[in-house]
């Protein structure tokens, strides 16, 4: 018989994990009683440990689904909260504390919650049982309790005492049974007293004869009968077993049997079955088994029905494609690695070269603008006198026809510019832009991947690539800097490189010129059209050339009939116009015969600097390809593999469920599998039942 109950309790737990449908469950024993009726004491006497929340102010706010598992071969006694994942708790005072915390977590305004706490207790001293402990009925309201608490508790209990559940109605012997809230509630839903077990506690508090009379109550006869108990924990045991792990069962039983044995005339043989916790335990097991057994067939039918529905949905919606959180992650990871491989095949030395060269082009343009293309205003006004840096302000127009005595200055200027370019920190710069481009590409790959719906994965992958690139960049940039070191002392440019540089820089300057012209036209527009712009620009030109003198500085508050805002815009336009003039002039110079060969490098700084940048890039792309790209392409997929494969089950589950579509799919697959599993277990149970019946008949 034991085996059957155990199996049914297991099936009941399985059905709970499948969840959802309330009708899909096996009946349980629900425990009701008013506060202080001794309800907790009865449950603790069955378990053999104090584990329920206590305290004058403590009100149970959530049902506790208590599953007791008899483990005859083991000494260990422990509790588990399956949905909390706290593991096995051997200290029962810890279980008590957890239950208290879970109860207190119910918001004050809600009073009670019908979300049950699941607790599983395994011990060689407990019977196989499943009980649901409900909040105790309130009889006397405390002044600090919410006023609707009483009603809410009654409603919650009402829900649970419905058929086919068995009601364990707890009443204290020292309260008239007619006033027992538990029995009154049970009478409403079970008027013929067919599925109620009456437990009369505190038998020691009334005269034995009166006690015996209560147990044979005729006013509200119960088919399953009444059991009288004395579940008080003896005082001396209380202090002795305070530490939470000791079993108090023997102490309680000794105390109880001492009481009943002391009155053999009243609680003698013929009514023995009506008293004592051991008898109550037996009765509970027996009743639970027969009740569960009775509803097996109908539950099995319901499960088959639900399974048919789930199977149909699985076929229609998902084309029978099975899915688990693990397989989903593995597929997503494989696809991502595949796209990364395709990317790594398409992003090599050539692509690095383009990125690095583009960055250096920008640096060359900046250098040229700083050292060569600034409008040499002072040189147009020789009367301002010569300062230290003045020779560097030679007008650029003078460059192609520089006098021999001026050449030293132009040489100096080009050498200084070359030195600035080679000492720019090419290692850091080139490594930086390449790493950044790789990082951006990973982001693009993520956007196009399954992972895009998973913030968790996006972060993990971004972090992985960032950390690898950070580490690689440190070494690479230092080593690359050493590689370009020779250029810091001497740069040779041969004819072929020169020609390439000349073509390249021509394109760059043309592009720059176009940008300048576009920006100038925009500036003209904002000033108010071409005519107006011309007026403003002429005015500023005249001021700057010294032809006009402005009182009060450079016209901060407006001048010449123009507002200060207009003059600011005008100055911007003027800068663009001058820049475009210089670019046109330099383009002409580069095109001229002067710039046809490297001999004239001092006359053609643009070509020379571009050629230098080209050579730096060649060194950089070779090195970055070998050091940064190859290593990254090797390390990144492996790191992803290690990180994702080492995730624990819970994390993988959370990951997969981030996507609502996947969540629905997973839920259905799981539900279907769960139902199939339960059905199989139930079939096994049926066979077991048949076998036991046969054995009984044969015996
Ligand atoms: P609950 O509020 O219904 O859970 O009641 P408790 O189990 O906490 O019991 C209320 C009080 O009654 C406690 O002080 C218990 O020690 C006491 N009590 C419980 N059962 C018995 C019993 O059989 N005999 C006596 N004398 N006291 C009991």
Notes on the protein architecture:
The chain is α/β, with parallel strands linked by helices and 699 residues long. 59% of the residues lie in helices and 6% in strands. It has 21 helices and 8 strands. The chain has an 8-stranded mixed sheet with strand order 3-4-2-5-1-6-7-8, with helices on both faces. Strand 6, helix 5 and strand 7 form a beta-alpha-beta unit. The chain starts with a helix and ends with a helix. 33% of the residues are buried. About 3% of the residues have low confidence. The site of guanosine-5'-diphosphate has 16 residues, from helix 2.
Layout of secondary structure:
Elements: H1 2-18, E1 29-33, H2 39-47, E2 64-70, E3 78-80, H3 92-104, E4 117-123, E5 129-133, H4 149-160, E6 166-172, H5 181-189, E7 196-201, H6 208-215, E8 226-228, H7 235-240, H8 249-261, H9 277-318, H10 325-346, H11 349-371, H12 377-380, H13 407-422, H14 426-447, H15 455-483, H16 495-527, H17 530-544, H18 564-591, H19 605-645, H20 649-657, H21 660-698
Parallel strand pairs: 1-5, 1-6, 2-4, 6-7, 7-8
Antiparallel strand pairs: 2-5, 3-4
Residues 33, 35-41, 136, 201-202, 204-205, 230-232 line the site of guanosine-5'-diphosphate.
